[in-house]
């Protein structure tokens, strides 16, 4: 009998890569999607014809739908990846973010417990480096104190602690993967890395004049989402339930990401000025192609995320730098150069 997995948020970047990964492993994969008037499933369209892949409607804000799916599928593994996952947007919709990102985790755990699967079903919770927020230690590891700095991060902290509570109170195999920033060509276009790779392609092809960004000095630990889903799976194959930092251990600024991305698109950048007055200039033309906008600064901004993946490397045998930062940027820009070339 093949293992059965339920993935919430299967249409997202991580969900689509994880579904591919598990299908290759011989799993029967069930994906939960929210009903909306426009069915955006381009990330999983190619999987729909696979007889081992099944899509179901459900919502993390609706405990009955989760209970129904868990009871019907009886999964061996659940990967809770669904969320309102945009940090900036969480300031605009804090209540909805709390309901889905915090209470949604509780609904999944309770569904497993009430369906009598607490001894057979392993649960992975997608946690986040945003828990560290206003960082108290560099780099951040499993023992670093949390200091969440956005409504999204505060909601994720509840998710982290409720997973730990169910693990200890009910002896359930449930774990959190504290993922640092992970990107890919499937990243949503409102996220800064994809915004940069698309803008680089559009500016290089004369279809956009400028890119507007927030704090160019923000530091992040960026990895490739396709590599990170393997670590999610490894966490649930581990002999005991534990939480792990998933990161590369290498840090870059938003400015550096811009430099690499624009170079891949054929534009050498030079940065001048500081803070709000900093600009990125195309060396060849002298034209300003990047400007800083106050609009993209947050009420509280996290500026220094840098993970220590030692535990995942030593205990799980995971390779965090299978895809380097430079290779990640190259993959994203190559994809977007081809995508932009097809635009009208």
From TrEMBL:
Enzyme class, broadest EC rank: lyase
Source organism superkingdom: Bacteria
EC numbers: 4.2.1.47
Keywords attached to this entry: Lyase, NADP
The reaction(s) this protein catalyses: GDP-alpha-D-mannose = GDP-4-dehydro-alpha-D-rhamnose + H2O
Family membership: Belongs to the NAD(P)-dependent epimerase/dehydratase family. GDP-mannose 4,6-dehydratase subfamily.
Protein name: GDP-mannose 4,6-dehydratase
